[in-house]
Amino acid sequence: MKISTLMAALAVSLTGTVASAAQYNANHFFAERHSMVRGPYVEFAKNVAEDTNGEVTFKVFSAGSLLPPASSLGGLRDGIAQVSYHAGTYTPAELPVANLIGNMAFYNTDPLVMAFASTEFGLTHPAALAEWKKNGIVFGGGYSTSEYHMQCNTKVETLADVQGKKLRMPGGAWSRFAEHIGALPVSIPSSEMYSGLDVGVLDCAVAAADALDSFSLKDVVTSMNTLAVGNYYAGFEWAYNADFWKSISPENRKVLFDQMAYYLAEHRIEFDADVEKAVSAAKEKGMVVYEPDQALQDALAEFVKKDEATLIATAEERGVENPAAILADFKQTIDRWDALLDGIDRQNVDALAELARTEIYDKLDPATYGTD
């Protein structure tokens, strides 16, 4: 028996069968206190249970306690979890389309725009939908981290300062950017950023600045550079096991749509608030914040123009048909959301959630979406 099958059997034995228990597993590899878990998973699960009259009840497993990061896609497909978060760069071969658009992280670094745009694209674009189906999952909604910054244990202000430095990168375009500016990309999971900085394996961790608190980086970081090194949205915040999705009623799918629309907005507000608090606390501990010099800004702009050809070539190598057209479609979706969100109150979760419902989720048919 395969390990994945054994684990699935164990998960069912712990929660009961789908038919008899109506309790399902929700998986996230961030800690429960993280903004992408405490609202979009913990509160989400409570609201879903209430709004479905207990017909859909999720038990939330956080901090990788059910599935480690690299296994979340396979574990979701195999039914170990019925809903899960997944960081797409862990599975480039399985999710080449998701990684193609996820590596466009420098085109627009507005996290709210990218969270909404990646959600609409994942729910509606034929290439994305075909990829989810091939992997045995049903896409529910996207996300975006706040902007990534270099958080370092040494002074990093200028392009010259960065050259030769060891930068933790999430892979893909970020690693290529490190090489472009003469730095050394190091691919390690976020859970190892602290130890890497502490022992000198890393000079900088490139991540959203809430990591100063959520991963305790403020204890080992002495400087932060405000250069916007993209933001991360590859994969999904919610996707569902295909058999589970088909087993629940259209009415309960509609509940999930409504809750995802709300927490798509809520988590963006909370994520940015966490960043602000974390940076403030780190500055109180002595962290110095540097603006990038012009040479570093120019190097980033040069990279953005240059890297699109690499994105397209990489996607073609992974079997994606016409990746240039897919990128063009995604850019249109990004630009649409840039316009839709212009002037909206970004602290009003209800207004943002209503926009997500009317412009994305209400256009889906809960009776048919994800069921073919």
TrEMBL record:
InterPro entries: DctP_fam, TRAP_DctP_sf. The keyword Aminoacyl-tRNA synthetase does not apply. Keywords: Signal. It holds the Pfam family DctP. It comes from the Bacteria. Residues 1-21 form the signal peptide. PANTHER family: BLL6794 PROTEIN, PTHR33376. NCBIfam families: TRAP_S1 (NF037995). This is TRAP-type C4-dicarboxylate transport system substrate-binding protein. It comes from Roseibium algicola.
